[in-house]
Write the structure tokens for this entry.
Amino acid sequence: MNNSLSMRLKKTAQCAYGLENIADIGSDHSYLAKYLLDNNMISYALCVEAVLGPYNKSVVNLKDYISKGKADVILSNGIDDVCPENIDGIVIAGMGGNLILEILSKHKQKITKFKRLILQPQNAQADVRKFLHNCGFEITDESVVYEKNKFYEIICAEPTDKISVREEIYYEIPLLCVLNKSEEICDFIRFKQQKLNKIITSCQDKNTKLSQKRIDDAVAKIKDLEVVLKCLQN
């Protein structure tokens, strides 16, 4: 088995279980797609690149699979040219959360026709989770990976008629990791608390309504996270 893939992308690859094929949007030279194909985890991969340089590198990396009809690389934006009739799952990894939301928001009807969305937003994870629930997706799997001094969150979601209700704090942190008491979750919660404390510090000298609101929001979230942390440690 190919072990050259980063832990973050290996964990992302695991989310493709049960899918026949995937489209990787902004595929970062098709490393994930090649890993999935090399290990017979999928039968076909479509890599979508918006820029010619990464497109050319993806073509080179996947040339053997392209020649066998098991992969294609296209120049396109987001999921504009990805058809749910031909693709089971969408992967968008390593992009900012707002860019992911922009891509998905453009096709709210289309995305509900895919079997699964596999997302790894670099930020704005709470907004991504709320968007998924508002669009009729149940979050079926969540992971936290610590790699190169950074935490990464991976979110898998599938369209459904029944959405599980989440408390507000579990849009900020991955509920399923808390329920499963995953290895990284306590350290991740402490990291989130540290970030919130930095927000409080940065706003303390600013005498504005907005800065006070940010302080109040951060204080409330820190308290909620402390409750979750204590439950995990009991």
About this structure: The chain has a mean pLDDT of 95. The first strand starts at residue 21 and ends at 25. Residues 185-233 form one domain. DSSP finds eleven helices and seven strands in the chain.
